[in-house]
Structure formats: structure tokens, C-alpha cells
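note to self: dont lose this again. the chain is below, predicted strucutre after it. 196 aa total, dont forget to put it in the shared folder this time
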Amino acid sequence: MAADVSDVASDVARRLEAILLIVEEPQSLVSLAAAVSAPVPAVRQALESLVDDYDGRSGGPMRGFELREVGGGWRLYVREELDDLVSEFVGGQAPSRLSQAALETLAVIAYKQPVTRSQVASIRAVNVDSVVRTLVARGLITELFADAETGAINYGTTDALLTHLGINSLDELPHISPLLDGADEVGDGAEEGGRR
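---
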């Protein structure tokens, strides 16, 4: 009987691996359970077993990839210490997918949200209209609400950004104030609610 339970658990883990190898977005427990036709508790146990296996806690070697829960779902990722190797292999010389202007605008929105387009333009000292449209089109930011007094749209980041960054929440973003010259003055004058 114990062999049968072990065989079923191994089969669930194998089917999960097949699904996890092809997904581009993190998958919830329920989604994975439906995909492999197994109960959620069995899927949860199989995922924990796979994490232990990939991390080398099951007696085997630590793998070059890991299984992480990110953005409310599970997905395979390259281990952080191998990021540079993979980047070089994939083509470290290839241009980044977002322009420098888009990355700077995205950073301002991530740290200051909710924030209006004019506030971002004021911080960056350039017009950001086209960059904001690009970020919205790529699903990295979204319109949160319109200001009651001015009608200005306030923007914030999406779960897709968390997924791309490999983090669960904005609280995991690094604090930037220690990296800034005159951080004390910046911190004293910063708006309440922005990340520092």
C-alpha cells in the first residue's frame, strides 16, 4: 500500500514538472491541481517535495534551477547565482527590452505609487507620456484611479512586474535612500507613502 501512495506522489510530481517547464507565468495551486488532475493537498505536498529535491535536501545535488512561489503562484527560475551565466549565454550583449527612459519611469512609479504622469514627469524632468503608454501596453503598470479634484490618472505597478522581478510584493524592492547623496534631505522632503 505504501508503494502505491509513493507511486501516486511521484506521478503527481512528474506531471507537475512537465507543466512547470512550459509555463511562462506563475501558476496557482488550484490551477496546477486542475492541470494534473490531483487534489490541492497532494499538489502542495508534491511542490514541497520538488523544492526539497531541487535544493538538494533530498540527498541529491542542488540543481541549477529552483521552484519558487512568486506573485501568488509557482514557477521554475534559474538560481540567482547563475543569472550572470545564463544572461551571457542568452546574449548579454542584446539590447534590453525596455529603454533606459522606460526603466527610470517604471522605477519612479514602483517607488512612489500611486503617482500621476505629471508627478513622474516632474521627478524625471522630461515628458513621460509615450513611456507611460508603453509601460501600460506591456502590462507593467496600470491606471489605479482618477484624482477627484484634478481628474489626473494615478498609476501603479501590476502583478506582472512582480513576476518579472521575481518578488512577491513591492516590500521586497530594495530601499534606495541609502544609495542617494543627501538621503536625509530627500527623506525629510519625500511625500508620505512613497518607498524610501
